[in-house]
Amino acid sequence: MRLVVLRFPSHLALAVSLLLPVHAAAQSGGDFSYNPDAQKLPTNVILVKGAWSSASDSSTPIPESGKVAESAYHNDYFGLTYTLHSGWIEKYTGPPPSDSGYYVLAQLRPADTSKDATRGSVLIAAHDLFFTPAPASNAPELINYAQSHLQADYKVERPPTEIRVAGHSFVRFDYGSPVAELHWSVLATQIRCHVLEFVFTSRDSKLVENLVQDLEQMKLPVEPGATPGASAGDLPVCIKDYAADENVVERVDPVFTERRYNSIPVRIIIDRDGRVKHIHFLSAFPEQAKAITDALLQWRFRPYLRDGQPVEVETGLWFGQMPRRAAAPKAGAVSE
Amino acid sequence: MNAVKRCSVFTSLLFLFFAGSAFAQSDPGVRGGAAGAGQPLPSVAANTPITILDFFNDGLGRFSEVDSVSGTIEAGLGLGPRFNSRSCAFCHAQPAVGGTSPFTNPQVSDASADGARNTIPSFVTANGPVREARFPFFFNSNGSPNTNAPNGGVEDLFTITGRSDAGACSLPQPSFALAQSTNNIIFRIPTPTFGAGLIENIDDSTLLANQNAQAGNGLGISGTFNHNGNDGTISRFGWKAQNKSLLIFAGEAYNVEQGVSNEAFTQERPLPGEDQTTGLPANCRINGTPEDHTNFNTTALGTSSDVVGFAMFMRLLNQPTPSTTTPGGAASISRGRSLFSAIGCATCHTPSLTTASSSLTASLNGATANLFSDVEIHHMGTGLADNVSQGGAGGDQFRTSPLWGLGQRIFFLHDGRTSNLLAAIEAHEGNGSEATQVELNFNSLSPSQQQDLLNFLRSL
User: Fold this and answer.
1) Lowest-confidence range among A3-7, A231-235, B174-178, B347-351?
2) pLDDT band for position A115 (cuts 50, 70, 90)
């Protein structure tokens, strides 16, 4: 760094000396005349988005709509409230949902002034089990997949173990890197056909343990029973691959105006009459989202019955290019 | 206090200062010594199959050729009418031909070469990076950027106006001052091309398998691929992986950067704004098109077009050779390599991938490409976003930059905003970036561990 500071003046002087005669010799013309009143673009804003997330309405909660407010992370979609460790903040928000169904919901760290500064982090993430490339249909399988792909130089400190936290069943998996002197603890549970994941990282294993203990204060929705197709409270039943075969009574294909090769994962909620009432694009270009919305609103589904009564269904389907993946285990429909 | 005691106290303080600073991590800087890149692949150097070395050397010659408008002032024909530099090798120069931005920026002399009368934009400096400029948006008639009209095309810095071989062609340069004053300009620096043939020959299935293997990472990372709009396969060259092959890459660069029309990009290229109105004036379209083409009246090596020669040269360049001891010594570099993986850098900067079978030469066949890239595009957040969309990549998505040869690079990140490796690492975190967690892990390391990691990177 010091080297750069020392060299800069000489570079600047040289640049200026080279520029002056040239500037004096030529006038800059161009496509546009100079206008001091021209409006400036904002900085540090993503104005040109590629494939991005969007939804058909703003009132239905979606996974990425959680926020940190008043020292807690709230997420209406997952029914989650997580109180931040004292002195911790969310300095940077995460990226948009990926086209493989991965969400960075929150990234938490000590405030720069905190006594814990640079000592650890919390990542709250979610894997959409409809779209994850991992061959997993539940939290234990996903964590086992992560363990099986752990690099050789990590050391498993606690193999995947089922525990209960805040009244919910979780899988806990701890590992560490001897060379980096870092410890990770991953706690994962399943909500609405997503694996919700808390990843705690620190050099200080005691801090990791304290952060894990903090989870007991977390508020989560009531866990559904073991009955397939059951859901917690008034939430839709989530069923993998429901939008297929005989369940689709009427189907209209979207008309794309531009040929692209991205994968478009779409979550929908089907109402009790078999109509699509909510569409959530995890990743789609705007014109793709419009074409798919126009089509899906014309689809009709066979209503899903529970105890003889129709209930709302949440499911996922792919548009665009299907991702090429490793084969998923034959676990049947994921439901909760 | 007497002089001896004062001296003793001073010495003690000095010792403490340097003892403390010894643990302050810093970028070791551009690795000195011989260039660790620029040679042909081993099997090419061995001329297997026979005559392949001739093609490499022929491509090197073409890559190094300097262009003029007429092909008489300099041997290459077809410069301009708009251009960023006059030779591939001017910009792809560090640490050897085929590389990236050199210490001395050739664009400063390009601006006035052979009588040209260009203003040098303020963002091009004698010792700064070679830069191409793009305007993310077109301008309204009042000079304000129109966010409903994405542009993103290259705005060439220079024109041939005034050159002794430009005839009556008179073109204005784009209004870079206005673009800068309205924040409607971004920059790109040249990507190095060493080992490019290995990247070209990695099968899509290998890239997809590597992507799937990272699915369980607890780091907030989940990239995707850019795809070629013609056949839908994974594209892989350029800052946003927007180019499918080295032939396309070479053809586009020859047309966009030097203004030479060719068999892949057949017309003289106007600015994006000009192309929406009148195009280029007739007196600036001086040569028949395409200016670079297959040569019918020659035999053997001379038959190929320049673009084919460029692509072959890049394809046959060997991957950079890292140092095992410099900087910091073998032990530090080894620790740094382990740390690089341990904190998650290797999740995107995949250390190596295996190439498919090759019909060209043995060194491209089932070879280990130590590229340190997954060839995926990742969201890098607001701090790095350039608001240019290319193919499937949005304004904040960039290809994981291959790190081979990094030790001898001068400028970092897509726009060359820094020469400090530590600053480049720190730029990975920000709102919307996939790399924030890994950056936090980096910050958790001790200064000596961070130094090991920096030493490892500068050994590449």
Assistant:
1) A3-7
2) low
Work out the number of other CB atoms within 10 angstroms of the CB of residue A330. Answer: 6
Alpha-carbon distance B98 to nearest alpha carbon in chain A (angstroms): 25
The domain A237-320 belongs to what CATH superfamily?
TonB (3.30.2420.10)
The answer to whether A168 and A223 have CB atoms below 8 angstroms apart is yes
pLDDT at A102 over 50: yes
Rounded Cα gap, residues B213 and B234, in angstroms: 18
Question: Is CATH 2.30.130.40 the right assignment for the domain spanning A52-217?
Answer: no
pLDDT digits (tens, 9 = 90+) for A29-69: 344 456 777 899 999 999 999 999 999 999 999 999 999 99
Summarised one tens digit per residue, pLDDT across range A248-293 is 999 999 999 988 999 999 999 999 999 999 999 999 999 999 999 9
Please write the tens of the pLDDT for every residue from B176-232. Answer: 999 999 999 999 999 999 999 999 999 999 999 999 999 889 999 999 999 999 999
**pTM of the complete model beyond 0.80:** yes
Q: Which residues of B touch A41 (CB under 8 A)?
A: 136-137, 145, 147, 182-184
Domain over B19-36+193-234+321-413+428-459 is classified CATH 1.10.240: no
| Host H or E run for residue B187 | strand B186-188
Owner of token pair 């994968």: A263
Return d(Cα B217, Cα B244) in angstroms, integer: 28
Judged by DSSP in three states, B137 sits in strand
Residue A211 CA to residue A185 CA, distance in Å, equals 9
Where in chain A are the domains? 52-217, 237-320
The neighbour count for residue A305, using CB atoms within 10 Å, is 11
On the question of a cis peptide bond just before residue B81, with omega within 30 degrees of 0, the verdict is: yes
Which residues in chain B touch residue A6, judged by CB atoms under 8 angstroms apart? Answer: none
Q: What are phi and psi of B343, to 5 degrees?
A: -90, -5
Best mutation target, B397, B426, B431, to test chain A (most A CBs within 10 A) = B431
Substitution target from B379, B399, B452 for chain A, most A beta carbons within 10 A: B379
Residue numbers in A near B27 (CB within 8 A): 1
Q: Which residues have a Cβ under 8 Å from the Cβ of B183 and sit 6 or more positions away?
A: A40, A41, A42, A43, B145
Cβ-Cβ contacts under 8 Å, B175 against chain A: 28-34
Residue A153 has its nearest CB partner, among B177, B338, B431, at B338
pLDDT of residue A223: 76
For residues B403 and B425, what is the distance between their CA atoms, to the nearest angstrom?
12
Most A CBs within 10 A among B142, B224, B438, hence the mutation to make, goes to B224
Residue A83 has φ and ψ, to the nearest 5°, of -80, 130
Q: Is B297 on the interface with A (CB under 8 A)?
A: no
